[in-house]
Structures are given as structure tokens and as C-alpha cells.
């Protein structure tokens, strides 16, 4: 069948019709796009890195240093000193007096007190004390005296005391009376190189070695 509009190609009529429709609808017709050929993506395989995990870390501490063992070797780290504390140092206890053997030393009374009063000694009135294995003796200020004793560490027991009966004048007799009353009451003994101390409920007699 022949076209009703000679001299026009069929495509021209179609284009005009589309234009008329689009003029009415106010649309824009884009020319057909040429399809792109499909894109081929090649997969690239990345080789895995053979990384071994580090072995566990070992720490050895000695004093103020520490040795750390890792997979790469050894490393020594010095530890910091701990902070100093401001605590006062406790002084060492005072040494206790050393007990000495009382036998073989002649002891001279320095001062004393007893149940009847003080025991007064002077350059002329001297009181002494000597210990043997189980007996004692000495000068009581006027007369010589002697007696028995027993000792158990710091405990001292003195038995009956006897003496000569010479009469003396001045301070000698009061000193002798006070001393004999005191020494028969003592029950405690403490001896060091420089001092001998006898004490009781009402008595205290302090001696020193005769040669010092």
C-alpha cells in the first residue's frame, strides 16, 4: 500500500507524531542509548602471608630487674625502686646487763636503805660483802659477820647471820645495825661487772667491786 504522504519517509512521520505527543505532554525523549558490552572482572588471588603468632611472653624477675622472653629474643628491664616510706626506724633494744659470777669478788657498799633507816658509809666506816660457794661474810662497819645463802638466778635467800661482838664508837654501830637488818631481808640479786644490787621489800643495798 502506498503512503498517503508522498515524498516523506515512514520514520519522519513517526518522529513528527512523537514530537506532537511530547509537545502536549511536555516530555523529553532521549535518543536511545547504545548498550555497553558486559564488563568482565578478573579475580586476583592474593597469597596469604605466613605469619606465625609470637609465643607467649615469659617474665623472670630477679631483685630489681626483669628478663622478658618473646619470639624476637630476650629483653632485660630494670624495675624502678619502690618509693621510700617516711617511717621512723625502730631503735635496737638496749643490751641487758650481763650477769657475772659473784664468787671471788670483794664487794664494797656504796649506799643503802633498810627497815631501820639508811645505811651510812664513810671513809672510816666501810661495809663489805664476799660470797663463797654457799656462804657469805664481810665487815658490817664494826664487826665481822658471816652467814649462809642460796641463789636461783635473780632470787637470793640469806639465812641466819652471826658476827663478832666488838664495841665501836661513832657512826660504826648505827651503820652496822642498819646494814644487818637490811641484808637479812633481801630476796633479789642482780650483778654486773660494775655493780651488785641486793633488794627486798624494805631494803636496797648497792655495792661495787672493791678494786674499782
Set down the secondary structure blueprint:
Elements: H1 10-25, E1 58-62, E2 65-70, E3 73-78, E4 106-114, E5 117-119, E6 128-131, E7 135-139, E8 144-152, E9 155-163, H2 172-183, E10 188-191, E11 196-199, E12 204-209
Antiparallel strand pairs: 1-2, 2-3, 4-5, 4-6, 4-12, 6-7, 7-8, 8-9, 10-11, 11-12
- What is the CATH architecture term of the domain at 106-209? Beta Barrel
Radius of gyration: 61 Å
Report the helical percentage. Answer: 10-25%
The succession of helices and strands, N to C, reads: HEEEEEEEEEHEEE
For the biggest sheet, the summary is:
9 strands, antiparallel
| CATH fold-level name of the domain at 106-209 | Lipocalin
Supply database-style keywords:
single chain, 212 residues, alpha+beta, Lipocalin, nine-stranded antiparallel sheet, 2 helices, 12 strands, 13% helix, elongated
Describe this structure as you would to a colleague.
The chain has two helices and twelve strands, in the order H-E-E-E-E-E-E-E-E-E-H-E-E-E. The protein has helices spanning 10-25, 172-183, and strands spanning 58-62, 65-70, 73-78, 106-114, 117-119, 128-131, 135-139, 144-152, 155-163, 188-191, 196-199, 204-209. The strands form two sheets. Strands 4, 5, 6, 7, 8, 9, 10, 11 and 12 form a nine-stranded antiparallel sheet that branches. A three-stranded antiparallel sheet has the order 1-2-3, with no helix packed on it. The radius of gyration is 61 Å and the shape is elongated.
Amino acid at each position: 500500500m502506498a503512503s498517503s504522504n508522498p515524498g516523506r519517509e515512514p520514520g519522519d512521520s513517526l518522529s513528527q507524531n512523537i514530537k506532537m505527543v511530547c509537545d502536549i505532554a511536555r516530555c523529553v525523549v532521549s535518543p536511545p542509548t547504545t548498550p555497553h558490552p558486559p564488563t568482565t572482572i578478573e579475580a586476583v588471588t592474593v597469597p596469604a602471608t605466613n605469619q606465625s603468632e609470637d609465643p607467649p611472653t615469659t617474665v623472670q624477675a630477679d631483685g630489681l630487674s626483669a628478663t622478658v622472653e618473646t619470639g624476637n629474643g630476650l629483653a632485660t628491664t630494670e624495675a624502678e625502686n619502690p618509693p621510700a616510706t617516711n617511717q621512723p626506724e625502730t631503735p635496737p633494744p638496749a643490751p641487758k646487763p650481763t650477769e657475772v659470777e659473784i664468787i671471788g669478788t670483794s664487794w664494797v657498799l656504796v649506799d643503802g636503805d633498810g627497815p631501820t633507816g639508811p645505811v651510812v658509809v664513810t671513809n672510816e666506816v666501810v661495809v663489805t660483802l664476799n660470797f663463797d660457794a654457799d656462804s657469805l661474810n664481810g665487815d658490817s662497819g664494826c664487826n665481822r659477820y658471816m652467814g649462809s645463802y642460796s641463789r636461783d638466778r635473780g632470787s637470793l635467800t640469806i639465812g641466819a647471820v652471826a658476827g663478832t661482838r666488838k664495841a665501836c664508837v661513832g657512826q660504826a654501830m648505827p651503820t652496822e645495825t642498819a646494814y644487818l637488818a637490811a641484808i637479812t631481808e633481801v630476796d633479789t640479786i642482780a650483778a654486773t661487772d660494775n655493780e651488785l644490787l641486793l633488794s627486798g621489800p624494805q631494803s636496797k643495798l648497792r655495792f661495787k667491786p672493791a678494786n674499782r
